Amino acid sequence: MPAKAQAKPHARPRTSELHDNLLLGDCREIMPAWPSAFVDLVVTSPPYADSRKRTYGGVPVDKYVEWFLPISAELQRILKPEGSLVLNIKERTVEGERHTFVLELILAMRRQGWLWTEEYIWHKKNCYPGKWPNRFRDAWERCLHFTKQRRFKMFQEEVMVPTGKWAVTRLRNLSQTDKGRDESKVLSGFGKNVSNWIGRDRAYPTNVLHLATECSNRSHSAAFPRSLPAWFIKLFTATNDLVFDPFMGSGTTALACCDLNRRYLGIELQKKYVDMANEAIRSSQAVPAPEAPKPGRTRLSRAI
Predict the structure, then answer these.
(1) pTM of model > 0.90
(2) CA dihedral sign of residues 185, 186, 191, 196
(3) Quick one: pLDDT at residue 47?
């Protein structure tokens, strides 16, 4: 998937410019010229409020929702009905307390028509050490999952994890209770049948992703590890689907797409990062990527 030349902002793009391409410019100016409903997944980490000022100028916390809503409206328009938006974001502290701009953004996007389907937590296994008088180290960030409808594309089997050593001893001697559906003791309506685990070597994961913060690119002030977008790309897309990142940075999402045989599309405000991302993509394509698993028939999951 070669990286093509950047398209000029405001121009109505050719179809080829919307596949495997990184565009230089402001996503707020570029996206309105695009067609509707052609993106399968949006996964991005926008500039956090009052952060990365030296890189992107920063967005004031009290203006963040107002700044982001026109962007989310365009993302809603260009996303396919069965597509997903994954937003990696974290509120900051202001005058000793956590600001509420992320919570306010969630509510505003719901009023905009988005469904806040799920919230995944990225546990940063190697978060930076430090000391503060009123809190501990930040070891997690939000990954907010929004959809346009209750039925959306999802491939849960692609992110399954090993069952674990617990099954070796737990399944050795099953009681009669273990062999039937045991209702929850708190009467929640949920139940379990332990015997269903016999012979299984994989299980569905939780909504907490335990990923290190380290990544190969240390030249961008806010790069996330490639494993983060890769996990959501495997979960919400099939081979050759189109993944869009409106805040591409140094190209982490695009590189994950190359690894997984997905098409990518990105927008980045800084030319040096577009150049850096294109060079990283060219280098990655010089080495054959491992063959990605081929998901079966498209599944539409229903949000409960």
Answers:
(1) no
(2) negative
(3) 85
